[in-house]
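Per your request, structure below.
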């Protein structure tokens, strides 16, 4: 959790979150408290929702716990204050202010994290625009923010910027955003655009060279069948070269663009092509324009298929754990692979 693990060690935040956990535990271990809470929710016109317990292995569960406690604060206070043993768990106005500040900061992070953890769409190219959005608007200090809210925002922004400041990570995110037709050079610093273009051309050259080397062993040189015995091979008369043929060959040789020049022309055409709507699927766009930008399409496949987070692989691990249980520990690896594949694709 960014809030407690990276620079936010404020005692007020620690106390408020600890109070939330104790309140949730109080209701999770008492069916009488849960029944009383359901009755009070109906009386106050609140949604009949259960409290959410924080889980260390589920991202966003702390924010969801805080959000639910704030939503049900009136009902919780009434139920807890009715029992002398739990009156001390009623959140004070100071605790509520702290929780509201934390909720205000963590809510956009939760929403964007859920979006970046998807599997059915491109995610890596979104990281650079999302970081820009955090720095410029969502996590920027506003005039009405409390000092605690500003402190939390500043701490999270500094952590995110430092996390993605490594050169290798920056190069990956910039190239992924560059080959996304929705963004291209929008979120790349102007002083780095030329260097990024040059690197893109070199990578495309490398990808094309690797592809040609992989396909070379499978190429077959056509052979001309030998004439049968007793048959004279028909010899075609040799055509006479005209003076114009020499000029035609010379012109074709001098005007033919080099491979790098062709890639650069393709890259220039890609950057000057029509703008794309924000809800466009970049993979479908590249599929439709693969014949227009055949070389750059290889670069798009390389970067746009990379997930932005480890959530997809972690879901596969969780799926495997649900399949290989204590009662099914004798499954063969091939059987596990097939079961996981079916569970993920059916």
């Amino acid at each position: 959790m960014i809030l407690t693990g990276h620079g936010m060690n404020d005692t007020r935040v620690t106390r408020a979150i600890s109070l939330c956990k104790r309140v949730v535990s109080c209701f999770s271990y008492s069916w009488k408290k849960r029944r009383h809470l359901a009755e009070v929710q109906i009386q106050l016109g609140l949604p009949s929702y259960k409290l959410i317990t924080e889980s260390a292995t589920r991202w966003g569960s702390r924010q969801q716990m805080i959000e639910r406690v704030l939503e049900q604060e009136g009902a919780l206070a009434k139920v807890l204050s009715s029992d002398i043993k739990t009156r001390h768990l009623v959140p004070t106005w100071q605790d509520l202010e702290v929780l509201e500040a934390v909720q205000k900061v963590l809510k956009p992070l939760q929403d964007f994290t859920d979006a970046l953890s998807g599997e059915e769409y491109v995610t890596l190219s979104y990281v650079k625009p999302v970081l820009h959005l955090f720095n410029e608007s969502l996590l920027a200090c506003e005039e009405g923010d409390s000092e605690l809210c500003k402190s939390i925002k500043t701490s999270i922004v500094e952590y995110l910027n430092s996390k993605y400041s490594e050169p290798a990570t920056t190069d990956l995110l910039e190239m992924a955003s560059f080959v996304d037709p929705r963004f291209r050079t929008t979120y790349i610093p102007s002083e780095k655009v030329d260097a990024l273009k040059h690197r893109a051309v070199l990578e495309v050259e490398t990808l094309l060279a690797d592809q040609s080397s992989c396909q070379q062993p499978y190429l077959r040189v056509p052979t001309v069948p030998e004439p049968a015995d007793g048959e004279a091979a028909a010899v075609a008369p040799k055509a006479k070269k005209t003076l114009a043929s020499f000029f035609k060959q010379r012109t074709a040789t001098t005007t033919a663009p080099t491979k790098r020049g062709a890639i650069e022309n393709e890259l220039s055409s890609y950057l000057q092509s029509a703008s794309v709507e924000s809800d466009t699927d970049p993979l479908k766009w590249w599929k439709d324009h693969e014949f227009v930008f055949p070389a750059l399409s290889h670069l798009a496949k390389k970067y746009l298929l990379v997930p932005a987070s480890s959530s997809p692989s972690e879901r596969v691990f969780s799926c495997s754990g649900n399949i290989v249980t204590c009662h099914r520990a004798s499954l063969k690896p091939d059987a596990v692979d097939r079961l996981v594949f079916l569970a993920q694709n059916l």
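The chain has three domains: 1-116, 118-214+259-308, 311-345.

Regards,
D.
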